[in-house]
Design goal:
355 residues, alpha/beta, 8% strand
């Protein structure tokens, strides 16, 4: 893709200056219709090329809109599965089996942005550019974190530190240039970004918020037992979500680190520590006693040990997801080394939490 962009963008720019006067090409009033003006300059009074450009633009924009809906649906569905967004977003249409609330919500957000910017294409494109460049910056920082925290993680493509730092600088420079060119886009971007972060913050603290709500309900609505029961049931439902940590060692330090991660970052109090073995002799001798020790050390959590006789891989992960009723995105492993025989992507969404 980047090779095509690197070729076509300069070529089209040169063609513009070869057909259209410099004053016309650089006029801000023509920024939204420069390609059509170029087609008109090439074709003269004939109209077929203008229609062809219009049809091509319609098809390209339709594809971009469809791609955005597909991408947003997948992203928000995964965030809802990870309990970062509201669970009602996972509801599916009975006819097409699509997540209609995600589609409707994205349409509402996009429409509201168009209405707020009063259909100004330059401002709208500036907000989109800011969002896109922020995502690219997160990719760069994520790459840096992988290099620092997961240097032993096997991967096919490795970008050097200078390349990542240089790319980060270019992206940040592009963001600053966009804001300088049209400062109002930063305000619109921050408004939508703040609302999104507020929703995510509510989801991360919903247990605490529900406990506060339950506290005030007991004080203000002492006679509404049904309301208190419903809130308490919701808290229990959130906390009883099971999570799995695959371990190949009985190291108390590694096990404790996994427990601390779940306690501090996941809204649950139930952790299953799973050890997959091929022979009984290979089971770490202190695994059971260490798990029992951790279960006693964290009285607010339920920590269970599950031993599975099998070869660790995508097949056993799929079977455990069905047998234990735990989604694969609620499963964790330590960072695999170079001898790991499977790709992390083949495990279907299993996450890494420790070294």
């Amino acid at each position: 893709m980047w090779m095509a962009v690197a070729f076509f963008n300069p070529v089209i720019s040169l063609l513009v200056f070869g057909v259209v006067d410099f004053d016309v090409a650089t006029d801000p009033a023509n920024s939204d219709s420069l390609l059509a003006i170029m087609a008109l300059g090439i074709n003269g009074d004939r109209t077929w090329l203008r229609y062809l450009v219009a049809i091509d633009g319609f098809v390209v924009l339709s594809g971009a809109v469809l791609t955005s809906y597909v991408g947003v649906t997948g992203l928000m569905r995964r965030l809802a599965l990870d309990r970062v967004l509201f669970q009602f977003l996972l509801a599916e249409n009975q006819i097409r089996h699509t997540n209609h609330w995600i589609i409707i919500g994205f349409f509402a957000v996009a429409t509201s942005l168009i209405a707020i910017v009063r259909n100004q294409a330059s401002t709208l494109s500036g907000v989109y550019t800011c969002a896109f460049l922020c995502v690219m910056t997160l990719f760069a920082f994520g790459n840096m974190l992988l290099k620092y925290k997961r240097s032993k993680l096997p991967r096919e493509v490795i970008a050097s530190w200078p390349t990542v730092i240089l790319a980060t600088g270019f992206v940040i420079a592009g963001f600053i240039g966009t804001v300088i060119n049209n400062p109002i886009v930063l305000i619109y971007f921050l408004v939508y970004f703040t609302i999104t972060m507020l929703v995510i913050a509510i989801m991360f603290t919903r247990v605490t918020l529900l406990k506060l709500l339950l506290f005030f309900c007991k004080r203000l609505f002492a006679n509404r037992a049904s309301l208190q029961t419903a809130i308490a049931r919701q808290i229990q439902q959130v906390n009883e979500t099971k999570m799995i940590f695959f371990t190949k060692t009985d190291s108390i330090a590694a096990l404790n680190k996994a427990v601390l991660y779940v306690r501090d970052n996941e809204q649950t109090n139930w952790l299953l520590i799973v050890h997959v073995y091929t022979a009984k002799e290979s089971i770490p001798p202190r695994l059971q006693s260490n798990v029992q020790m951790l279960d006693e050390a964290y009285p607010k959590m339920r920590i269970d040990l599950v031993l599975v006789h099998a070869d660790f891989g995508p097949t056993i992960v799929d079977k455990l997801a069905v047998r234990l009723a735990v989604p694969k995105n609620f499963m964790f492993i330590t960072c695999p080394g170079e001898t790991f025989t499977h790709k992390v992507a083949d495990l279907g969404g299993v996450r890494m939490v420790t070294h």
